[in-house]
Design goal:
Elements: E1 12-17, H1 19-23, H2 27-37, E2 40-47, H3 51-57, H4 67-74, E3 79-85, H5 89-97, H6 110-114, E4 127-129, H7 133-143
Antiparallel strand pairs: 1-3, 1-4, 2-3
The structure holds uridine-5'-diphosphate.
The site of uridine-5'-diphosphate has 8 residues, from loops.
Binding site for ATP: 18, 66, 94, 100, 111, 125
Protein name: Nucleoside diphosphate kinase
Organism: Cellulomonas xylanilytica
Length: 147
């Protein structure tokens, strides 16, 4: 027997509330938006990420000039790591997050509503969201090996 054509397929994504979001007290608001959109929380953990974890997490950016300041920023305080689940959640959370640059991210998005440019070497844009199924699987295994 095959699934009905419109049967939802479950997908998971890794969301990080970055240290700027945690520091500014926006973790709850960001999690609220994920839940309000209709996605399910699978795991939530406040933690301090070490350099090895972040080097792996940002492996695709190896060699880029912003990598060192980015890792330093991500180590400047705790991050809230979240696994969210739902049909098309990877694309859905990227849409909730908005464009990388919070100055031009659309109003209505997390970065557009809550972020701005602080004139620093790293773009502090409140959240990370996996950008593909492959990245999501890799990142969830990295942050939540028990899942
Ligand atoms: N970043 C930065 N300068 C850049 C590009 C990226 O500081 O020129 C930072 C920013 O915090 C971004 C992260 O590096 O969120 C990862 O970059 P990516 O291109 O994957 O953006 P995202 O998927 O987070 O929108």
């Amino acid at each position: 027997m095959t699934d009905a054509p419109d049967a939802p397929t479950t997908q998971r994504t890794l969301v990080l509330v970055k240290p700027d979001g945690v520091r500014r007290g926006l973790s709850g608001e960001i999690v609220r938006r994920i839940e309000a959109k209709g996605y399910t929380l699978v795991a939530v953990e406040l933690r301090e990420a070490d350099e090895a974890l972040l080097a792996e997490h940002y492996a695709e950016h190896a060699g880029k000039p912003f990598l060192t300041p980015l890792v330093e920023f991500m180590r400047s305080g705790p991050v809230l790591a979240v696994v969210a689940e739902g049909h098309r959640v990877i694309e859905g959370f990227r849409s909730l997050a908005g464009a990388t640059d919070p100055t031009v991210a659309a109003p209505g998005t997390i970065r557009g509503d809550l972020g701005r440019d602080w004139g620093l070497k790293v773009i502090q844009n409140l959240v990370h969201g996996s950008d593909s199924e492959e990245s999501a699987a890799r990142e969830i295994a990295l942050w939540f090996p028990a899942l």
